[in-house]
Amino acid sequence: MFFYSLLDPCLYILRFASKLEFGAKTQQVANTALRLVQRMKRDSIHSGRRPSGLCGAALLIAARLHEFGRSSKDIVKIVKVHESTLRKR
């Protein structure tokens, strides 16, 4: 049995953020997404979840906070999760 909560979602955020092409604001968007994931961890929302789904949700929120027009379909293509999974996270 493999536990997904052992994998830290923070490890994937910068890689996914660079693939989403935020330009000069890539680091800022990644930092915001990292803070969101850390908050999820503090509230124990992350346990039992695959890290890519959490990263995708955090990046989608962070992109919108930084006024980037990324859709959930853009995130799904990079993160490789289903759109319904992204919505649930």
Automatic annotation (TrEMBL):
Key word Zinc present: yes
Superkingdom as given in the UniProt entry: Eukaryota
Transmembrane segments: none
A Pfam family per the record: TFIIB
Subcellular location: Nucleus
Chain ranges of the Cyclin-like domain: 11-89
SUPFAM superfamilies reported for this sequence: Cyclin-like
Major place of residence: nucleus
Family, per entry: Belongs to the TFIIB family.
Name assigned to this protein: Cyclin-like domain-containing protein
Source organism phylogeny: Eukaryota, Metazoa, Ecdysozoa, Arthropoda, Hexapoda
